[in-house]
Amino acid sequence: MSPARTTAGAPISSIGRAIAVLGCFNERRRALTLSEISKKSLLPMSSTHRVVAELVTGGFLVRGSDRKYRIGTRMWSIGQLAPVSDQLRHRALPTLARLYEETGENITLAVLDRGQALYVDRLGGERSVHTGARAGGHLPLHTTGVGKVLLAWQTPAAIEKYLGRPLERTTPYSIVDPVKLKKELDETRERGYALTRQESTAGNGSVAVPILRGGRAVAALGVVAHLTHLDIPRLVEVLQAASESIRHELENDH
């Protein structure tokens, strides 16, 4: 449930105001001034000043010498207790490391989060191509391999809802036509893996597979590489083996 708001759109409750302030920060907005926070949160400057001061005292925000505020370490510490970090990432990490050593390419692990792909972890090195993915960041479902997997294994109603929203065209190759994307998702589920070609980053492609538990995709595992290195049969084989390994690790956790 969303926090109660005034007719102007500003949250009423104390918790709602704190959520609004913290929600101003993302991967593109890591440092904000007090006035920027006030504008983005729709809170009056006086309320913003009070809420931000309390969050700084609690360690949820920190104020730099440039007078800009950033997310504090208290947020990070609490975030590590979430199942996605405490269980999935911990259990998957050895397999992700082996997969990187085997391929030399970017390895991504993602879960569905509020209609986007949340990158739980990403491994890469000097041999890997540059990508826009980072651990803790979000990317669209329809332009990424892991995103297509997470979307393809949703219920038909959830897929239709996603297809009914405006779809961002990240590159000229992004599939934003609902009919074409629906066909792509059907093929993804039928063959058991997703493919992208320059749909998120120019020159790059990806292959991704689901990590299934009870027929549900709890996460997606992918490899991002330059198109010239996209050996699909080989990558599908190693990804499926890695997915099965992570699934066993998760089941052994209970």
Short description:
This protein has 254 residues and is an alpha+beta fold. It is 43% helix and 19% strand. α2 (34-41) crosses α3 (45-57).
Explain what the structure shows.
With 254 residues, the chain is an alpha+beta fold. The chain has two domains: 14-78, Arc Repressor Mutant, subunit A (Orthogonal Bundle); 83-252, Beta-Lactamase, CATH 3.30.450.40. The chain has nine helices and eight strands. The protein has helices spanning 14-22, 34-41, 45-57, 73-79, 83-103, 145-152, 156-163, 178-191, 232-252, and strands at 61-63, 69-71, 106-113, 116-123, 138-139, 194-197, 204-213, 216-226. The strands form two sheets. It has a six-stranded antiparallel beta sheet, with helices on both faces. Helix 5 runs antiparallel to helix 9 (232-252). The longest helix is centred in the middle third of the chain and has 21 residues, at 83-103. The radius of gyration is 20 Å and the shape is globular. The chain starts with 13 loop residues before the first helix and ends with a helix. The model has no long low-confidence stretch (mean pLDDT 87).
Draw up the topology in text.
Blueprint: H1 14-22, H2 34-41, H3 45-57, E1 61-63, E2 69-71, H4 73-79, H5 83-103, E3 106-113, E4 116-123, E5 138-139, H6 145-152, H7 156-163, H8 178-191, E6 194-197, E7 204-213, E8 216-226, H9 232-252
Antiparallel strand pairs: 1-2, 3-4, 3-8, 4-5, 6-7, 7-8
